[in-house]
Amino acid sequence: MLSNLIGLIGLLLIITGALIFAINTILTTFSASLIFTGLLLILVYLYINFPKIRDVLLNRSAKYGANMAIMILIFISVIALIAVISTRYKRRLDLTATKRYTLSAQTVKILKSLKKEIEAIAFYRADERTRQAMEDILLEYSYYSPNFKYQFVDPDRKPTVAAKYGVSSYRTTLLISGKRQETVGMESEERITNGIIKVTRDSVKTVYFVTGHGENDIADFQKGGYKAAKEAIEKENYEIRNLLLLNVEDIPQDASVVIISGASKDFISSELEKLKRYINRGGKLFIMIDPGRAHNLIPFLSEYGFKIGDDVIIDKQSQVYGANYLTPVVTEYDDKHPLTKEFNFATLFPIARSVDMNKDLSKGAYPIIRTGSYSWAETDKKTLEAGKAEYQEGKDKKGPITIGSVTAVEAAKANESGKKIYARIVVFGNSGFANNTHLNLLGNKDLFLNTVSWLAEEEDLISIRSKDSEATPVVLTATQGRLIFWLPVVVLPTFVLAAGLVIYSRRRFRK
Questions:
Q1: 124 with 131: CB under 8 angstroms?
Q2: Cβ atoms of 49 and 56 closer than 8 Å
Q3: With respect to CATH, is domain 105-193 assigned 3.40.30.10?
Q4: Percentage of residues in the chain with pLDDT exceeding 70?
Q5: Which of 32, 50, 286, 399 is surrounded by the fewest CB atoms within 10 Å?
Q6: Which has the minimum average pLDDT: 93-97, 313-317, 467-471?
Q7: Are strands 312-315 and 284-288 parallel, antiparallel or unpaired?
Q8: From CA 286, how far away is CA 260, in angstroms rounded?
Q9: Whole-number Å distance between alpha carbons of 66 and 59
């Protein structure tokens, strides 16, 4: 009787200690003491009852039971081994249509090129509902770089750690690299990747938007504005500034990229001279020129090999994408140039003109963006205004039509080490593709940001960015809805009930 009581108390102590550990997720001294004491009492119980236990184990039924126990133990061991292997070499299969749970190509590219160590400290409560989502993301990041490490801290249990880093709210993740630190909120791949860029870049490059000629306004949040484009560039860790050429003697030395977007008025000669000096010192220029606008930029750009047509591109195939024929859809890109060689998304350009270039690899001259074979460059503006545009043999140029080109220009002076410096110029025949209305359509945003990154000589940022989390509702017809209701709710239960009644009736009939 006493020995049974000892065994029961030992078992209860082990269960209590295990429950405390499971709830707290930390093996405290108290829970460890309970488990250890329980094990000692179990050993005492086994010692006292050893003769009885031996007799039970030696009988025939016990042998069969032992064999069964061994088989069960082997099965459990195999399952445990599979679990350990799957945990150590974990890979997830993403079956979502937009690959929502797969890291973007840009993130993978950045992680694989990491040269500095980064530690992510995620401040989440142990019972935080969104903790698992963040852990899944950070685990995925750690797969692609040994320099990326992460840990979770519960601010309630370790308030001193939270105070050390100045964290006062839950669901906060810090990215730390050396002495640099960036705070990331929420479970977002885009924010984490942008945070990595910020803590690993030695300096912040500046992008200037030229103003004073009717260009797209980076502060305008209306349909035709460029506020969304500005914010997208800033997320890539660039500083954005306006540049009024009339107010400066020269383009600032810190100008990593200068953008002229949709200028509607001519540039005066002194402004063009400043742009030329900027190119001669190895500057990076991104010009988006719409049909019928900024006429004196055309001869300026022709000096660098750009052939800008006085036309409007018509694309009857664009209706497949829900666009009108004045919005050419581009799916053909140069597969050799670093800006577009890995780009495989469709882009659309509302009301665009041709911007061609004779391909010359030795000069870095590439026509990189082309419309489809169903397009043409329309030169008859009266026909366009009447809405009766038709391809005219010998007058219009048949597609594919080049809509964007790039070139490299050797700078007047080499750098301090004697290495040649090359300016980079990109010209697109449309600026509307990056406005607030069209930036987030198809691959427009990636193409725009990749162009800025290539000009800024940050090729590791040229890629496809993370996906936006969107609701993906399942739309059913009335018939499909009724089918989904009747099959699981009525038909299947009825089938199971009928099968049970048949079996019951047959057994009763046999008796």
A1: yes
A2: no
A3: yes
A4: 86
A5: 50
A6: 467-471
A7: unpaired
A8: 6
A9: 11
471: pLDDT confidence band, cut at 50, 70 and 90? very low
The length of the chain in residues reads 511
Say which residues have a Cβ less than 8 Å from residue 377's Cβ, sequence separation at least 6: 309, 311, 312, 313, 314, 353, 354, 396, 397, 399, 401
> How far is residue 242's CA from residue 252's CA, in Å, rounded to a whole number?
11
Q: What radius of gyration do the chain's Cα atoms show?
A: 34
pLDDT tens-digit series, residues 346-358: 999 999 999 999 9
Q: Residue 406: name the closest of 339, 467, 341, 490 by CA.
A: 339
Pick the CATH number of 208-461 from 3.30.230, 2.30.30, 1.10.510, 3.40.50: 3.40.50
Which two tokens mark 93?
């299969």
pLDDT at residue number 36: 87
Tokens of 124: 């989440």
Nearest partner of 283 among 322, 318, 304, 252, judged by Cα: 252
348 touches 328 (CB < 8 A):
yes
Distance CA 23, CA 237 (A): 42
| Six-digit token string for 139 | 């685990």
Tokens 């709830």 correspond to: 23
What are the structure tokens assigned to 437, written together? 């209305």
Q: Are 74 and 108 in contact (CB under 8 A)?
A: no
Decide: helix, strand or coil at residue 398.
strand
Helices (H), 115-264: 131-144, 159-164, 189-200, 227-235
Task: Retrieve residue 409's tokens.
Answer: 């220009």
